[in-house]
Amino acid sequence: MLTVKNLNVYFGSQQVLDNVSLDLPAQMMAGLIGRNGAGKTTFMRAVMGLIDGMQGDVEFDAVNLSKSPTHERAGMGFGYMPEDRKLVPEFTVQDNVMLPAWSTKMADADKRLEWVYSLIPEVANFRDRRANQLSGGQQKLVALARALLCGNKLLLLDEPFEGVAPALAQRLAQIIFELKKEGMSVLIADSNEQHVRELIERSFTIERGTVTVQ
């Protein structure tokens, strides 16, 4: 499903990712485990095409996407939940969730939205509220819902459990576990493998910009 080959990223003279290669098969949940600053977020942003000047190849279903813009990746079934949520504060919850559909001109957006709401009914309950009226945990749910709107094949989750109460972390884990039934490939970045141990089938460790398979 996702193959990353020899990925290098520099910020100025500092190398943040060092010749990273990673294979994520179809219908697999995997963890990208590493401490803060190890390169997890940089890796996910590079896969999504959000970093300029990266070197290496990103392939999805054997198609090289290294030169493809982010919106094209979303149109192919990529979903991305950033660590800091990146919601538009003044937009309603539903407008935030629908942003990928608008940018990719998704044909079945309404049907997909109904499915997302069925999976995360909490988001449906506050769909008409503005994002800046929500708690941090509620915003995490909205960011996950937005990723799921377009992410029907591959989902990249960056620190989904960070900074949320234990009850909400458990709820997020339940939702992510349900995605196994949908046959999606999911890569979860986390600083603590205990958060994802019961969810993942494969673990990648990232340290100082290099990745190894556990």
What is the CATH topology assignment?
A: Rossmann fold
The main pleated sheet reads as: 6 strands, mixed
CATH evolutionary superfamily: P-loop containing nucleotide triphosphate hydrolases
What sequence of helices (H) and strands (E) makes up the elements?
A: EEEHEEHEHHHHEHEEE
Textual characterization of the structure:
With 214 residues, the protein is α/β, with parallel strands linked by helices. It has one domain: Rossmann fold (3-Layer(aba) Sandwich), CATH 3.40.50. The protein is built from seven helices and ten strands. It has helices at 40-47, 70-75, 93-104, 109-119, 121-125, 136-150, 166-178, and strands at residues 2-11, 14-24, 29-33, 55-60, 63-64, 78-81, 154-158, 185-190, 202-207, 210-213. A hairpin with a 2-residue loop joins β9 and β10. α3 runs parallel beside α6 (136-150) and α4 (109-119) packs across α6. The protein is globular and about 45 Å long.
What does this entry show, briefly?
The chain has 214 residues and is of the alpha/beta class. It has seven helices and ten strands. It has a single domain, classed as Rossmann fold (3-Layer(aba) Sandwich).
Which features does this protein show?
single chain, 214 residues, alpha/beta, Rossmann fold, 6-stranded mixed β-sheet, 4-stranded antiparallel β-sheet, ABC_transporter-like_ATP-bd, ATP hydrolysis activity, P-loop_NTPase
